[in-house]
Structures are given as structure tokens and as C-alpha cells.
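Dissemination and training. As part of the outreach component of the grant, students in the summer workshop were shown how a complex can be specified as a set of sequence lines and then modelled as a single object. The example used during the hands-on session is reproduced here so that future cohorts can follow it. Participants entered these lines:
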Amino acid sequence: MKFEPVTIKDIGKALGLSTSTVSRALRGSYEISSETKRLVLEYAEKINYRPNPIALSLKERRNHSIGIVVCEIANNFFSQAINGIESIAYNRGYHVIMSQSHESYERETVIVDHLASRSVDGLLVSVSSETQDYTHFKNLYDKGLPIVFFDRVANEIITHKVIADNFKGAFDATEHLIENGFKRIAHITSAPYLSISEERLGGYKAALEKHDIEFDDKLVHYCYHGGMIYDEIENALTKLFKLKLKPDALFTGGDRVTTTCMQALKKLNKKIPEDIAVIGFTNTNVGELISPSLSVVRQPAFEIGQVATELLISMIESKRPVTDFETKTLQTELIVRDSSSRNMTEK
Amino acid sequence: MKFEPVTIKDIGKALGLSTSTVSRALRGSYEISSETKRLVLEYAEKINYRPNPIALSLKERRNHSIGIVVCEIANNFFSQAINGIESIAYNRGYHVIMSQSHESYERETVIVDHLASRSVDGLLVSVSSETQDYTHFKNLYDKGLPIVFFDRVANEIITHKVIADNFKGAFDATEHLIENGFKRIAHITSAPYLSISEERLGGYKAALEKHDIEFDDKLVHYCYHGGMIYDEIENALTKLFKLKLKPDALFTGGDRVTTTCMQALKKLNKKIPEDIAVIGFTNTNVGELISPSLSVVRQPAFEIGQVATELLISMIESKRPVTDFETKTLQTELIVRDSSSRNMTEK
DNA sequence: TATTTCTACGCAAACGTTCCCGATAACGAT
DNA sequence: ATCGTTATCGGGAACGTTTGCGTAGAAATA
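and obtained this result:
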């Protein structure tokens, strides 16, 4: 199917004017008589003329569009973040182009290359859990393509980054468990080289240390697919429960990890919080409906998306090369419910 | 920031060839000597040449991108559908441009106009709950812009449509409640003029009729914001509970409506299913974790997205105008859990 | 009246490609 | 020696805009 659009040339032909005159009239240039302007504007309106954005892009060498690279859309955190991204982009006149890495490094490289081959003015990325090498970003970035990382960032690339305070979020969650009397706190999280995993593990360790609980790496499990693969989670849990010194609490890092852990615990017939207390990073909006109601660390996903987009657009629209980069850290929210409660276990 | 890309011209200059020769060499034309081809290919590889997609778009008058218009991304159904859309689009070499109407008719018109002004080869749309007038789609469609509707469709526009079998899904859910002994079945759903609302209401009525239960419009409530506004849902529920003949079961139509109803019921201290049994349309993946575990009608969101995208791309790539349109109906899945169980109430 | 200054418009290049049409050379055939 | 082929390449238009520059005529100035 073809979509035959009306061009500036058509207007010129119809009105006996040159394209330049029409163009100028449309932009309201002072060198066009008001009479001609009126004529052009009226005719353009009549035939519902819309400038061809592609021709403009070619001329101005920009697209007014930004690319998003995330592992998956169907995830509470990311869909909320994308919502934030879209809200800002829309107001600033940018289109948002979506793509998913599905936690695959290879696919990420393909996507990024595809997006960046100049069909996009900038990139908003949260790296895949498989990604350990960042040269595909580095190459483009060095060539001048603006990139802002959010959530899962590439520390070795010097640019704007927007993250939640994962350290503090993890610290608070862990300390909350400790203060509720739990001593053997397990931690299931995503791939170890992910920035978020590192930061959350750091907070977890710091809380243990503060309360003089020895860190035990047998209590920490990494799920390389971020909870996308059920068995990975179930295996981690069964290993934990086979320990001589079983955990009495679980702190999960990641939206998918948390919900999948809850499903696995249900399947394994573990009572929460009697058998094991649970608190985890997740942005689900039905935490209170879950049985028992789920204690969570909630990330300001929408705001992260917004801030990242603002930074990216400022980079895109900056005349001079940007040299002053910042890492914005937004606070998480600790929502305590029943799944991490000591009271429940004492009944 | 500027992103200085290498063009076909640069290659020509460096190698002492014309742009046409370079272009042909790159495409492997038979009229270029293998020696020249080798030279060009090697050099292009070396300097990492990527064709400028914008220039191509201008030339070929297409973009290899499709626009998505939905009410919101952060919604289980839509994020899963978008996942399906992206999966097909990626394989077929199309970019996916996202936008949200936020259930606003006005915003929808602006978005559609913006997207369609030729920055997109086709549109995948699920209309907003406010939309009753479809001329903004009709105009573009008549001009030749391919459009495929999914989920919430515009019946008056003759094109491909992909929907879940909302009638049957609603029928099954309602009949399930009836067979479990419930007699006063309330129905809370989205805006009445939405195709999905109509279809689901139809299934609901048909099930009632089959089992000789009189339809009572006092048991039906429409939420014009599709559950996005909490109070709208709570109001509907309190009205239901103020009825002389209170409902004993609730069938909800819509992802957001269902989860928000659950939240409101919790806040109103209603026991499920003792005070009121619940089953609803939703694509949440934590239905079994909810207390009580939630009976749901699940839509094949991912597949709906896939099928819609395939149809759209077939329209885009069709040489001749498409005249044979189909409405694909995919089956829903009834997942019975505790929230709609009679047994629970008899304990 | 001759010259300058506006006013209002057109020409053409440019953005990066593709592709139709020629152009040039080599070469065998006549 | 001339011609038609074939192989290989370049010129230039086109896609839809914007914009620097040029220039016509009219008005203003000298």
C-alpha cells in the first residue's frame, strides 16, 4: 500500500509559487508578503499539508527520536520506566523507539547497532544481564552518539547515569529483616556483574556488617537470567533449603526475581514468613494483595525514566560537547508488609 | 552533540570512485568488477560504514517502522502485547515507535497525527476509552496509511482487527460463577462504547440468559477510566454493596479494573469469595500469589500483538491495495482458582 | 533623472541514497 | 579499419526540505 502525501512542491505548483517561497511562507518568514502567506497557509490547511519529517531529518541530521534498549518490556519496573520516558519525550517532541535485548548480549549488540546507525538521536539503555563487554556502546558513544544509562549502568563509560539508590535500598531491606530478628538472611539476585546486583549486594553486606552478622556466600545466589527462567530460581531456593544452617529470611534483588521467588516458594510449600521471611526489590502494584502481603523495596521507576530522558535530551540538544556528567541517584521506598514480619511467625 | 557519520561519498572520495559505483559495489551489483567490489567492501568495513536509513526512507518513501498507540504501557496486557509486537517487528526489520494516549481522546488524535505524518509506515492501535469518534483514524486510513486495530477496535473502520474472544471469555467466566452457585453476579468494566466492553457485556448477558438469570443493569458499572482512577472503582463497589439485593459475585472486564477492584475490596474489608466471589479479565502473572488466589480470564496478549503485527506488515508490503480484511479472534484462557470458588465459602 | 534601498520572490545547492542513462575502453567479429 | 558487444564506471536527477544568494521591480533618496 502506498501513502501519497502532499508536498511543498504541490502547493507551489497549485499556487504558481516556487518551493522556497512556499517553505518560507509556511515558516512565516518576514520576506514573504502577508498576502502570499495567507494564500499559502490557507491552501496548506485546505489540503492538510504536513511537512515530511524524513526530509527534515535528512537535512537537519536529526530524527527527534530516541531509542530505548531494555531487557524486556513486560516487567513492572521497565514498563513504568518507559512510561516516564515517554512522558518526557512526548512533551519535548521526541519519538520513542523501543527494543528488547531479552537479556541477550548478542541481541543487544545487534539492536544497538541497528538503532544507532543514525536512525536515532540518542540512546537510553539498561544493559542486559549477559553484557560484560561494553565496546558496542563505547564505539558509538565515542563517535558522538549521546547515551544515558539507567538502572543497569555501564560504569566504565563516562556519561550521565540514572539509578535508584540500590545500596541504600538493599541496606534498608536487610536491616529491616535483621531488626525483625532474622539472622540467616539469604540473597537471590541477578547476574553478578550487573551494576544493580553489585550495588544491592553491597548494601546487603553493609547491613550484615553493621549488625555483626557474618557474611556467608552460601546464602547468596545469582540468577543469570534475572528470574526469566523459573528453574534457575527454584534451584537456588532448594539449594538454600538444603543448607545445614537454613536461611530464615530472603532478600531478593530484582522485579522478576522477587515474583518468581514467591511462585517457587509457593510451589515448594514454604510458609512465608514462618519458614522464610521475604522482602525484595519489585515494582508490582499488587504487593498488598499477595498472600502474605509482600514487603518490597520499590524503585522510583517512572521518575528514573523521566530524569534519564531529560538528561539525554539535554545532551542531544547541547551545542558544545558535554563534558560534565552526573550520576543521579533516586531514593527507593521501603514498604513493610507481612511477608517480612516477625509477629506473624510468633503467632 | 553531533554525530559525524561516514557516507558513501567519503568512501568514493577516498577510493577515487563515484558515489554510484560505491553504491553499486555495496549492493553487489553485477556491473562492478570484483576487484572494485573488494576494495569498496574492505574500506567500508574498515571505517565501519552504515547506510543512512533516513536517506533511504526519503528515497523509498518508507521508514521500516510501525507506530503503536495504546492507552498505557505499564499494564500487564499491553506490555505483553507490545512484547509480541516487538518480536515480530524485529524479525521483519521494523522499528517500533511507542506512544500512549493515557485514555485521552484528545491526546490520541494528536499522537496519531504526529506519528502518521509519514514518520511511520503503519499503525497498530488499541483505542482509548474516551474515543467515540474515529475520524482521525479514518482520514489517515483513507489516504492509504495501513492501520490494524487490536484489542479495542474501531468497528466502523474496515481493516484487519485482532481481538481476544471477549464474548466467549466473558461467557465462560460468568457461567463458571453460575455453575459454582452464584446468582447475583455484578459486572464492572471499562467505558461502555469500547468494543471490548460491549463484547464482554454480551458474553456476560448470554451466560445469564442461558441459565435463566434475569439481567439487572444495577449490577453493571462502567468505569470510564478503565480502573486508572481508584475512586471510580471504589464508588462502583460501594454502590453495589448498598443494593438491597447485594451481589454475591463479581466479574470484572479489564486488567486494570480487576486489580483495582481487588485493592478496593481489600480496603472495604470484603472477604473473597465469602462476601463476594471474583473473576476477571487480567494478564497478571501473580494471580496465584494473590490472596485468595485469583481466578482470571487471561488473554493471549503476546499472540495478539504478534498476529496484529504480521497483518500490518503484510498490508504495508502489499503491492496492490488490500481489500480482503479479516478479524482474527484468539481464544482466552479461563484459569479457575480460589477467588471464585464456592467451596471456600462453605467452609 | 540617476542611484540606492527595500520588498518579495526564484534559483540552486545541500542532506545521503539509488538508479536511469550515458560514456569509455577493450575486444572480437566482420 | 570499422562496428557491435561487453564490462565497468561516472553524471546527474530524484526523494522533500531549508536557506544563502541573486534579482526583478518598486519605492525612496539624492
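The longest helix of chain A spans residues 301-317. Students were then asked to discuss how this feature might be tested experimentally.
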